[in-house]
Amino acid sequence: METNKTSNEEIEIDLKELFFVLMEHIRMILASTLIVAVIAFVYSKLLIVPMYASTAELYVLSKSTSITSITDLQVGTNLTSDYMEVISGRPVLDQVINNLGLDMDYKELYGRVSLENPSNSRIMKITVKDSNAENAKIMADEIAEVSAAYISQKMDQDPPTIIQQGYVEESPVSPSIGKNTAVGALLGFVLASVIVVVGYLLNDTIMSPDELEENIGIHVLGTLPLDETEDDGDKSKSNENKKRFKNTFLKREVS
Predict the structure, then answer these.
(1) In whole numbers, what is the pLDDT of the chain averaged over residues?
(2) Within this chain, do residues 39 and 60 fall inside the same structural domain, yes or no?
(3) What is the DSSP track for 94-161?
(4) Please, what is the Cα angle at 234 between 232 and 235, to 5 degrees?
(5) Which domain holds residue 198?
(6) 137: exposed, middle or buried (Cβ count in 10 Å: 0-12, 13-18, 19+)
(7) Res 57: pLDDT
């Protein structure tokens, strides 16, 4: 019990010492936090191209489906999952590229399209992102129209109904300047703190007789005070001699 108590006390002292070490470097930590936050803000504001999103919606319910039939509703829900695979497929997106004369390939358009099916619904949301808000709307609407026609022709099903076309959004969806700035500030704070902590843990220099006794177990018989008033005319040389003399004394005590 006594051993555990002593160990806990030592850990508590170490944590307190680590806290004070961090506080000694608080200016450097805050400076790092501010600098990285500013870099993240400038990068997000000036270097990242804003992206706008537009969403069109399709409703999957064939003309022959009875809305009161649970089985028919389940079939409609299953068809929604199938249609999502068709919409993101190469034939549909290649047709959209040809119809609009887009200067991009299938992979690039595929990376800008996201599909969503809200749970327990037969609605498909087709969202397209582009650096131009009007182009995002045009592509979303075209994908919805081409998908409906393709499903009707190739899958022998009634085409999904377009219940909402895309809108021209005024505000970009990315980048999130506030979020990026906050992440940059956190990164700067953590990075500076880690540097201070690692430096503290790797520093095994004995700074006082108490540390010598605690770490090595050797009792210090005595110490020589440094007389700061002594000066032989060369202050830097005098200070160097004093430090060398003190280090020699400590080495002798340790040996």
Answers:
(1) 79
(2) no
(3) HHHHHHHT-SS-HHHHHHHEEEE--TT--EEEEEEEESSHHHHHHHHHHHHHHHHHHHHHHS-SPPPE
(4) 95
(5) 1-48+175-203
(6) buried
(7) 94
